[in-house]
Design brief:
alpha+beta, 634 residues, 5-stranded mixed β-sheet, 21% strand, elongated
C-alpha cells in the first residue's frame, strides 16, 4: 500500500518549474519582468540556440544585496509582498517568489548583481551555492545555461531552434509594448536582432508593429472612474485573414482574457467580412484592487471584480473609436486644415460613460473620445447637410423597394441627363455657400454622375471618382437607424390592406412567443387562425417594401433564438435581417436627387464604410489612379 510522504525540495521545485517554465520564452518573460520590477530603464537579452543553450538578461535596476542573493533562489522568497492586503492590490509584474527557484531547478543559474551603494558586485552560483566578488557597474545579470539539463525527458518536448527563438522574441515584444519608457535590446547567437530606444507608446507601437499598422488603425482613448483604455485598433477595411497581431494588456501585463476578446469580437461583428480578423494593441489600466492576477501559474489570465462593467466600458470605447466613417474623418481633417470648424458644424465630442464604481476622489472621471461618435453634421444652409437632400432621402428610403415601373432592357448606365429628361425632379438648389472655400469644395462623397447596371452609383468628388454599392450602403444606413430606434418608440405605418400570411406551426409558435418583440420592432401582427397571421402595420421605412419575405425572415430568426438568451443579446442579428430585406435592391433605377440623397446619408451615418456583412460600401479612385490606367503623363 503506497504511503503518504513529503516530497523533497528539489522535486517540489521541478514540479513548480513545469508550471512556470514551459520553454525558453518563459525564462525571458519571468526574468525581464523581474528586471522591470527592479526599476530597470534598460534591459538586454542574449540568447543562444533559441534560448535552450543560454538565456542571459542584464538590467540597470537597483540590484540585489550580497546577503539576499542566496535567499533570492529559494521558494516563496520575494521583496514584493509583505501582508495579505498586498496580495489584493498587486502592482508588480511578479509577486509569488517562485520564478527564480523554479528556474534554478531546471538549468545552471548564476546571478551577478551590484546593489545601489555597494562597493562592488557579487556573483552567486545556484548549482554550487558559491558566492564570490564580481565586476559589474550596476544592476543585475541573470544567466541561465543548459535548460532542462537535469530533466532530459522534458528537453525532448522542445521544438526547433528557430521556433523556440520566435517564442522568446514574442515574449520580449509583449513586455516591450507595455513599457515604452524602457530601452530593450535582443541578440541571438551573437547577432543583434532588436534595439528599442525609450519613447512614447505611439513610437513603440510603430517600432514593433510597423508604421503601416499605425496608418491603418485608429486611436482608442477612454477613461471612466478607476479605468482607462488606450491603444490602437485596425480599421475594418484593413483587416485580413492572416494571424494579425492582437495584444491585450491589463496594468502593463499581457493577458489572454475571454471577456475582453469577446468585447472586441462584438464590436467588429458587423463590420468584418468572412473570416477576417482585427489587429489591435490595447492597454487597460485599472485599480489593482479591482482585478485579480493570481489566477494562473504564468499570470497570463486575470479576473475582474466587475467583469460586466469592464466589458461595457471596453465595448463602448472601441465602438466609439470605430464609429466615424472614413468620410467623417476626412471631413474633420479638411476642416482642421482650413481652420474653420464652423463651416462643417462638427458635433461636440461625446463623453465616455462612467463605470458603476467611482474613482478614488468620489466622482467618476470622464474624457472625450479622440473621435466623435458620429460624423460631422453641417448646420442648415451648408452643402454637407440641407433640407432638400434630407427630404429626397426620406422619399428614396420609403420607396426603395417599390416595384420598378420602367421596362427591363433600358440602358445599363443611367446618366444624369436621362433622369432629367424623363421628368424626374430637378436637382435641388444648393444654399448659398458660407465662404469661397465652401463654394469650391464639394461634400466628401461629391455629387452623383450616373447609376451603373442598377447596382453601383458613380459620383465625382474632390479626389476623383467614387464608386458606391447602392444596396450595401443603404443596408448600413437602415441598420444604424434601426439600432437608434430600438430604445424608443418606432415610427410605424398602418397598412391599408393587412398582409395575410399562411404560416406553419413553427412560425406561429415564434409569433406567439415573441409578440412583444415584433411590436417593439414596429410590426403589428395578429392571428387569424392557427395557420394564418395578419400584418397590420410595419416600420415606416420598410412599409413600402416586400413585407412578406421580411416578416418570414424575422419569424425564422426569432424561432432560432435560444430560450436561455434574451432578445437584447440577439438584437443586432434581428435588425441586420430587417435592414438587409429593407435595403434597395439591384436594378432599381434611382433619380439624381435620390442618388445625391443617398450620398449625403452615407456621410452622416456611423460605420458607413462597410455594410452589415463587412463588405465595403464605397471605393475611392483618385485622379492619379485613373491617370495611371490610361498611361497619362508617360
Amino acid at each position: 500500500m503506497p504511503r503518504i510522504h513529503l516530497l523533497p525540495d528539489a522535486l517540489i521545485n521541478q514540479i513548480a518549474a513545469g508550471e512556470v517554465v514551459e520553454r525558453p520564452a518563459s525564462l525571458v518573460k519571468e526574468l525581464v519582468e523581474n528586471a522591470l520590477d527592479a526599476g530597470a530603464r534598460a534591459v538586454a537579452v542574449t540568447l543562444e540556440q533559441g534560448g535552450v543553450r543560454r538565456v542571459r538578461v542584464q538590467d540597470d535596476g537597483h540590484g540585489i544585496a550580497r546577503e539576499e542573493l542566496a535567499l533570492a533562489v529559494m521558494r516563496h522568497a520575494t521583496s514584493k509582498l509583505h501582508t495579505a492586503e498586498d496580495l489584493e492590490r498587486i502592482a508588480t509584474m511578479g509577486f509569488r517568489g517562485e520564478a527564480l527557484a523554479a528556474i534554478a531547478s531546471v538549468c545552471r543559474l548564476t546571478i551577478t548583481s551590484r546593489a545601489q551603494g555597494s562597493e562592488h558586485a557579487w556573483r552567486f552560483d545556484a548549482v554550487s551555492g558559491e558566492l564570490a566578488p564580481a565586476a559589474l557597474e550596476s544592476g543585475t545579470v541573470i544567466d541561465c545555461a543548459d535548460l532542462y539539463y537535469n530533466t532530459p525527458a522534458r528537453r525532448k518536448f522542445l521544438k526547433s531552434e528557430s521556433t523556440e527563438y520566435a517564442h522568446c522574441e514574442e515574449a520580449l515584444r509583449r513586455v516591450a509594448l507595455s513599457r515604452p519608457e524602457v530601452a530593450f535590446a535582443l541578440s541571438h547567437n551573437a547577432r543583434s536582432v532588436l534595439h528599442l530606444k525609450p519613447g512614447t507608446p505611439e513610437e513603440r507601437l510603430a517600432a514593433l508593429l510597423g508604421e503601416t499598422f499605425i496608418e491603418r488603425s485608429r486611436a482608442v482613448e477612454a477613461e471612466a472612474g478607476p479605468a482607462r483604455l488606450f491603444g490602437r485598433v485596425i480599421e475594418p477595411r484593413h483587416a485580413d485573414q492572416s494571424r494579425p497581431p492582437q495584444y491585450w494588456f491589463v496594468n502593463g501585463r499581457f493577458v489572454r482574457d475571454r471577456m475582453l476578446t469577446q468585447a472586441l469580437r462584438q464590436v467588429y461583428a458587423d463590420v468584418l467580412h468572412g473570416s477576417r480578423q482585427p489587429a489591435f494593441a490595447l492597454f487597460l489600466t485599472i485599480d489593482p484592487a479591482l482585478v485579480d492576477v493570481n489566477v494562473h501559474p504564468a499570470k497570463i489570465e486575470v479576473r475582474f471584480r466587475d467583469s460586466q462593467a469592464v466589458f461595457r466600458f471596453v465595448l463602448d470605447a472601441v465602438r466609439r473609436a470605430l464609429a466615424p466613417s472614413r468620410i467623417a474623418l476626412e471631413a474633420l481633417e479638411e476642416t482642421d486644415r482650413r481652420g474653420s470648424p464652423e463651416s462643417l458644424g462638427t458635433a461636440p465630442l461625446p463623453q465616455q460613460p462612467s463605470l458603476p464604481y467611482s474613482s478614488r476622489s468620489g466622482a467618476p472621471a470622464s474624457r472625450p473620445a479622440p473621435y466623435p461618435a458620429s460624423p460631422p453634421r453641417a448646420p442648415a444652409g451648408s452643402r454637407l447637410h440641407d433640407a432638400a437632400a434630407e427630404t429626397a432621402y426620406l422619399a428614396f428610403a420609403r420607396s426603395a423597394l417599390a416595384p420598378t415601373r420602367e421596362a427591363d432592357g433600358t440602358s445599363a448606365v443611367r446618366p444624369v441627363a436621362e433622369s432629367t429628361e424623363k421628368g424626374s425632379p430637378e436637382i435641388p438648389a444648393l444654399p448659398a455657400a458660407t465662404s469661397t472655400d465652401d463654394a469650391l469644395a464639394p461634400p466628401p462623397l461629391g455629387y452623383a454622375l450616373a447609376q451603373l447596371h442598377g447596382i453601383y452609383l458613380l459620383a465625382q468628388n474632390a479626389a476623383g471618382l467614387v464608386l458606391v454599392d447602392i444596396h450595401a450602403a443603404h443596408e448600413r444606413i437602415l441598420y444604424e437607424g434601426l439600432k437608434e430606434a430600438w430604445d424608443r418608440t418606432p415610427s410605424v405605418q398602418r397598412l391599408l390592406v393587412p398582409l395575410v400570411l399562411a404560416v406553419d406551426a413553427r412560425e406561429y409558435a415564434a409569433w406567439e412567443e415573441h409578440r412583444e418583440t415584433l411590436e417593439r420592432l414596429g410590426f403589428d401582427v395578429g392571428a387569424l387562425g392557427p395557420e394564418q397571421l395578419a400584418v397590420r402595420s410595419a416600420p415606416s421605412l420598410l412599409a413600402q417594401g416586400a413585407l412578406e419575405p421580411l416578416v418570414r425572415a424575422l419569424l425564422h430568426e426569432l424561432s432560432e433564438l435560444p430560450q436561455s438568451l434574451a432578445v437584447e443579446s440577439f438584437r443586432d442579428k434581428i435588425l441586420a435581417t430587417m435592414a438587409c430585406h429593407g435595403a434597395v435592391r439591384a436594378n432599381r433605377p434611382l433619380t439624381l436627387p435620390e442618388m445625391n440623397a443617398l450620398l449625403r446619408a452615407m456621410e452622416r451615418t456611423e460605420r458607413s464604410d462597410q455594410c452589415n456583412h463587412g463588405r465595403p460600401t464605397w471605393v475611392q479612385l483618385s485622379l492619379t489612379e485613373l491617370d495611371r490606367l490610361f498611361l497619362r503623363g508617360r
